[in-house]
Design a protein that fits this description.
The chain has 90 residues and is mainly α. It contains 4 helices and no strands. The chain has 2 domains: 11-47, no CATH class; 48-81, no CATH class.
């Protein structure tokens, strides 16, 4: 039996969801958005501050002003320690 390896969060799942959202908006098809909504809970658990920073840098590569603004906000949140993962007690 192979030992279980902890899966490292990849940006591919998140970028696939962004593509589905854009496709759903462009075609006005709700089924693409429903597919994204089904995956949000699992992805939210895997999302870290560093992964979010990578996603912002990747998605806003051409829009430097917006990218820097979002990364600055993320840095301010990191410094304040305001974002902490919550676990359901029940």
């Amino acid at each position: 039996m192979r030992p279980l390896r902890r899966r490292t969060p990849q940006t591919t799942d998140f970028t696939a969801n962004v593509a589905l959202i854009e496709k759903g908006v462009a075609t006005k098809e709700g089924r693409f958005l429903v597919r994204v909504l089904r995956t949000l809970t699992a992805q939210r658990r895997r999302l870290t501050k560093d992964l979010l920073a990578r996603l912002v840098s990747q998605y806003y590569a051409q829009d430097v002003g917006r990218r820097d603004e979002l990364l600055a906000l993320l840095g301010a949140v990191r410094a304040a320690g305001a974002v902490t993962p919550r676990r359901n007690a029940g």
